[in-house]
Design goal:
single chain, two-stranded antiparallel sheet
């Protein structure tokens, strides 16, 4: 049905009511599987694939004999890790916006905000790391300064991803389990 028809029909239009409910579900509903919030499930992929991507990338740039064999494995693991970290970020925001956290305050809320702050930084570090890794694997056969610069950037991105994944995960664990 064209958009204008539903608008002119107002609340009597069943499509308008359906669209309104869908918006409520997205903004107010918590994403879950069988009653378990999605964030605690997704975060396990992030804390496994984030460091695995970093270690794979460090091997890719540091182990010249196996560089050809590690090329595609590294690219795939980095893309999965980046996707998992972004998924953890989005599900974490959805989880925190649920009614479960309405009565949180003080130290507990501070720990959650620390975790969120690390997660906001981690998603951009990991995205940069992924972009540089894509470039390095795309330009895999290059030598000289191009390879040296890309290898250095991949190594820096890998180390930053590893460190921020640990910091974010630790802050999340402290938010759940306390100091």
């Amino acid at each position: 049905m064209p958009r204008g028809v539903c608008r002119s029909a107002g609340a009597a239009c069943p499509y308008a009511a359906m669209n309104h409910r869908a918006r409520e579900d997205v903004s107010e509903g918590m994403w879950e599987i069988n009653g378990v919030p999605l964030h605690p499930l997704v975060v396990h992929a992030a804390v496994v694939f984030g460091p695995l991507a970093a270690l794979s990338a460090l091997l890719y740039v540091g182990w010249a004999k196996r560089r050809d064999q590690l090329r595609w494995v590294t690219l795939v693991v980095v893309l999965i890790g980046t996707g998992a970290i972004w998924a953890a970020y989005f599900t974490g925001n959805n989880f925190f916006s649920s009614s479960r956290f309405e009565h949180f305050s003080g130290e507990a809320l501070d720990r959650i905000h620390t975790h969120q702050s690390y997660a906001k930084t981690l998603r951009w570090i990991t995205t940069g790391f992924a972009v540089v890794t894509i470039a390095a694997t795309w330009l895999h056969d290059r030598t000289g300064p191009t390879r040296a610069v890309l290898s250095a950037l991949v190594a820096i991105g890998a180390v930053l991803t590893l460190v921020w994944t640990i910091l974010t995960g630790d802050a999340g664990a402290r938010a759940v389990w306390g100091s």
